[in-house]
Amino acid sequence: MQNAIVKALINEEQIRLYFIDNTQLLRDIYALNQELPKPLKLLLGKTVSAMSILSGTLKGNQRMSIQVTLSNPHHKIFAEAEANGNVRGYLNEELLRTSNIEEKSMQDLIGPSGMIRVIKGSEMNQFTSITDMPNQHITDDIANYFVQSDQTPTYLYSDIQLDNGASLLSSHALYAQLLPGAPPHLLSEVKMIVKANPDIFSKLNAEKASDSEEALTQLFGDAKIIGHSSSQFFCGCSKEMFYGMLYSLSEEEIKRSIERKEDIEAFCHICGKTYTFKQKEMQQLF
Ligand SMILES: [Zn+2]
């Protein structure tokens, strides 16, 4: 099932395990970032893929946003997920402009002093945590955030397959978290089973929930599917949001555009939408 998070309990209901085929979500993100060199594609893809599966852990009107700052502090990756499964993500301009990185590994780009900042919660009740990136690895270090900030042992895995031309073939993610009281070694066992089964997602992907349950049971001993939720790319930008940007232009600039009878165009670098502000709309700003 594409863009559907399958939620299960395994190991006698001691571990929460979710997985997703989010190929379509990543395809939508990559369509807006076509010229990205492979290492950046993977950095963005893995961050977004992790957030898409984590959207399944959010409730009500909760949202979670992440900012990954690479060792070069000007290089940042942003992604955001909402409880309804809407996910967006992008790289900042400085990172997009970096040259000669085709041959670099993700580990090289993250470097020894990467940082992760997570803001999680609902509008009235937000928590910010900053953790370092000891593994120089997107999903391992997001999992490390859960250990550091929530004291909850967590495993996150993202598998992105690109062809030789760096076009997307498939994307999947898996999340496992120990439930209170469960012995920590159970999570290491899940990790080992995932590592030992490189084709795990082709085994798990099934049209019917009962087939997924059977596949999970074969891999992990026992499993119970407890639900599904969707996750999809959605920007959520609006013209109103870009009025704020217009205000940040100087009055002089706006007046000049009005004199020249030029419209102002605002471009959303997350989803690629362009908003045009007509003369009349700009005059209303004064
Ligand atoms: Zn947008």
From TrEMBL:
It comes from the Bacteria. One of its GO terms (molecular function) is unfolded protein binding. Keywords: Chaperone, Cytoplasm, Disulfide bond, Redox-active center, Zinc. The keyword Ribonucleoprotein does not apply. One of its GO terms (biological process) is protein refolding. One of its GO terms (cellular component) is cytoplasm. Pfam families: HSP33. InterPro entries: Heat_shock_Hsp33, Heat_shock_Hsp33_C, Heat_shock_Hsp33_N. This is Molecular chaperone Hsp33. It comes from Planococcus plakortidis.
